[in-house]
Design brief:
Oligomer: heterodimer
Radius of gyration of chain A: 24 Å
Strand content of chain A: under 5%
Strand content of chain B: under 5%
Number of domains of chain A: 1
Distance between the termini of chain B: 8 Å
CATH class of the domain at 99-262 in chain B: Mainly Alpha
CATH architecture of the domain at 99-262 in chain B: Orthogonal Bundle
Largest sheet of chain B: none
Number of strands of chain B: 0
Structural class of chain B: mainly alpha
Mean pLDDT of chain A: 83
Shape of chain B: flat
CATH superfamily of chain A: MetI-like
């Protein structure tokens, strides 16, 4: 005789009784969000506490200590003008995180607004937004960012602007898709019937229901922006010298690769670890918030 | 079918026109390239030279006139002269193209040759050690900065072990490191993507039918699943090529390959705007063209699209 619980209706009823575990329970249980989250938190802490943690002034040259290999005094060694690499790495975290988070906010704002407007209203305005997305997707992001910075000149806010202009499309596509399906749902119809204003419906009623995939892209966007910033810094189009950025430290490292390979090794590791932790966090959040696309 | 092709061709043309416009707007928003070129020039005759150059470049015309003549230039693939070398821009670009093509096309082939079989294999062996291992490796591969991998490879394989050249284009072996480095992020992304698509296909009803009628699992995978996995993968090809083209700009810099990306970066430093503009445009248009070609191919791969 078969188990009584194997009947589909009963199984469904049982599943309904069992409440799904809360977000934070899932967050801690998922190895990707847990590990990624811890590393991200650590990097944020390092960036915030940079003045306390850094053993030396990151921009102070020391002519007696030129490209020394790692030693107890300088754990990661010194660069070509004798600056302490560990201290520069710690301050570099501030630039990378600032670029990552600022880009996330700006490109998120552009992409989510355009996606929501296109998806909700449809019609001609939607067609224009879709065509715009296609165009920006067609241009290799890094090439366009290089082009923009080549004419704007370097600098932190310009780097953020350039990376944002090439990374909003991912948001726009996802958000548009969510709005296309959500606007047909009954809760939106109910809101419309009771006379809620359209902007309120778009922002207060629909957006919270589309937030899962958005959070995933926000997180992955930070990783992408940090990698792009490093690439631009490597091409000399990043935040201006002598500010310590991981990308610009790598350029130095390349010049010194024969005599002092440690100069190139550490900043690359930092970029890798930071991008990896945000990517892990993002993919883990996808498992939790957006299981359909897993 | 013919109507679909014509519609896609028209869409592609519109996208190309918009790309050209975006590049024009970006380049003109920057202000006066002549001023930048002569920045800090103390000579008294600099003012007159600037005025002459502006006339020659057509920068004194009203913007709509500049835009139309720019469009005309693009259509004729004539981008004027380089500020620095005084040679025709198009000639300089054509010279660099073979290097960039060799690099990106090889990386594209390497990435797909590994990602396709690997992604399919790990999807079939889901939750095996191979599956977990490649997922972890793929996560690393999309997070690692390519130019840093390049530097580390040069350090290890060229300087320490002396197996391969650190830079240059003199021999085929000089391309080994740059091609691998350029392929890593794409390979990682595609492996995950192929795995995802394959898992979806493997859970469809028609595959259950294939198994139910007694087809051996190997035939189910190779005969039915793989073919249906190809469509979404082909769709992504243009986008992947775009990432490769963007990545090649950096990789050419790391390995000293005199390709289009290298020319682009040098021209930015020299404030050689006609070359920058043309290089950005050629790189972008090649991607639009690649996307258009993919769009036109997949009705042949997927008869369902052709019958729409």
């Amino acid at each position: 005789m078969s188990n009584a619980l194997s009947h589909p209706a009963l199984r469904q009823a049982e599943a309904d009784l069992r409440r799904p575990p809360s977000f934070w329970t899932q967050f801690v249980r998922n190895p990707q969000t847990l590990v990624g989250g811890i590393i991200v938190a650590a990097i944020v802490l390092i960036a915030v506490l940079a003045p306390i943690l850094a053993p030396y002034d990151p921009n102070l040259p020391n002519p007696d200590q030129l490209y020394r290999p790692p030693s107890p005094e300088h754990i990661m060694g010194t660069d070509e003008i004798g600056r302490d690499i560990l201290s520069r790495m710690i301050y570099g975290a501030r630039i990378s995180l600032t670029v990552g988070l600022a880009t996330m906010l700006l490109s998120g704002f552009i992409g989510i607004s355009l996606g929501a407007i296109g998806g909700y209203f449809g019609g001609r305005i939607d067609a224009v937004i879709v065509q715009l997305s296609d165009t920006f997707q067609a241009i290799p992001g890094l090439v366009l960012a290089i082009g923009i910075l080549a004419v704007l000149g370097a600098g932190l806010s310009r780097v953020v602007l350039a990376i944002s202009l090439v990374s909003w499309v991912a948001y726009a596509r996802i958000v548009r898709g969510s709005y296309l399906s959500l606007k047909e749902q009954q809760f939106v119809e109910a809101a419309r019937a009771t006379g809620v204003r359209t902007p309120t419906i778009i922002v207060r009623h629909i957006l919270p229901n589309a937030i899962g995939p958005i959070v995933v892209i926000l997180t992955l966007n930070v990783a992408g922006a940090i990698l792009t910033e490093a690439s631009l810094g490597y091409l000399g189009l990043g935040v201006s010298a002598p500010t310590a950025t991981w990308g610009s430290m790598l350029v130095q490292g390349q010049r010194l690769i024969r005599v002092a390979p440690h100069v190139a090794i550490f900043p690359g590791l930092a970029i890798f670890l930071t991008a990896l932790s945000f990517n892990m966090l993002g993919e883990g959040l996808r498992d939790i918030l957006d299981p359909a696309t897993r | 079918m013919l109507r679909t092709i014509i519609r896609r061709l028209l869409q592609g043309l519109v996208t190309m026109w918009l790309v050209v416009t975006v590049v024009f707007v970006v380049m003109r928003l920057s202000g006066d390239p002549v001023e930048m070129l002569y920045a800090g020039d103390p000579r008294p005759e600099a003012e007159r030279e600037k005025e002459n150059l502006r006339q020659v470049l057509g920068l004194t015309d009203p913007l709509p006139v500049q835009y139309v003549s720019f469009l005309a230039q693009v259509v004729r693939l004539d981008f004027g002269q380089s500020f620095v070398t005084r040679r025709p821009v198009m000639q300089m670009i054509v010279q660099t193209l073979p290097y960039t093509l060799r690099l990106t096309v090889s990386a594209f082939v390497v990435a797909y040759l590994i990602a396709l079989p690997l992604g399919i294999m790990v999807a079939v062996r889901r939750n095996s050690w191979l599956d977990y291992g490649s997922l972890v490796a793929a996560m690393g591969g999309v997070s690692i900065p390519p130019f840093w991998v390049g530097l580390m490879f040069i350090l290890l394989f060229a300087l320490k072990l002396d197996w391969l050249p650190a830079s240059g284009v003199e021999s085929a072996s000089a391309y080994v490191l740059p091609v691998i480095v350029l392929a890593i992020p794409r390979l990682s992304f595609m492996t995950r993507y192929v795995r995802g698509v394959m898992l979806e296909v493997l859970s469809t009803d028609y595959l259950r039918t294939a198994r139910a009628k007694g087809l051996p699992e190997f035939r189910v995978v190779t005969g039915h699943a793989v073919r249906n996995t190809l469509i979404p993968i082909v769709t992504l090809m243009g986008l992947q090529l775009g990432y490769l083209v963007g990545g090649s700009v950096i990789i050419e810099q790391v390995f000293g390959i005199p390709g289009l990306g290298h020319l682009l970066v040098q021209s930015i430093f020299n404030r050689d705007f006609p070359v920058v503009q043309a290089a950005v445009l050629i790189l972008s248009l090649s991607i639009v063209l690649a996307n258009l070609l993919t769009d036109l191919t997949y009705p042949y791969l997927d008869p369902r699209i052709a019958h729409e």
